[in-house]
Amino acid sequence: MSHSVPSAAAAFDLAALKRALEQSDADSLLALYDEDAEMEIIDRNRPPSAPLRLVGRPAIAAFWRDVCARDMTHAVGEAVSDAHRAAFVERCAYPDGCHVVSAMTLELRDGRIRRHLTVQAWDEVSCG
């Protein structure tokens, strides 16, 4: 008689997320999301009472394709994760001197992003 051991939940690949963001690789980013994932973004133009909400991989794909097509650099740091959650800070810089800092938290399911929250701040002086 054989006994099967339940398999552990799939691990989230935080290194792949960091690499994809820093290389502006939208396709690799999208592969980390569930089909029915949700993303919420809060910033100076989208306050907590009216955040940007994206539902489903196609909507999230359009967002990441736009971001990854921009002339800017991305650096990921302060990254932590376990089987259910991940969090990190992304620091971005545009050639004109505009800087953006985003704090992101991810809710994970079976090694994929289920819910994504971004709270970001932009330089007020140099960013249009």
From TrEMBL:
It comes from Neoroseomonas eburnea. It comes from the Bacteria. Residues 19-116 form the SnoaL-like domain. This is Nuclear transport factor 2 family protein. InterPro entries: NTF2-like_dom_sf (IPR032710), SnoaL-like (IPR037401). Pfam families: SnoaL_2. Gene3D superfamilies: 3.10.450.50. The lineage of its organism: Bacteria, Pseudomonadati, Pseudomonadota, Alphaproteobacteria, Acetobacterales. Signal peptide: none annotated.
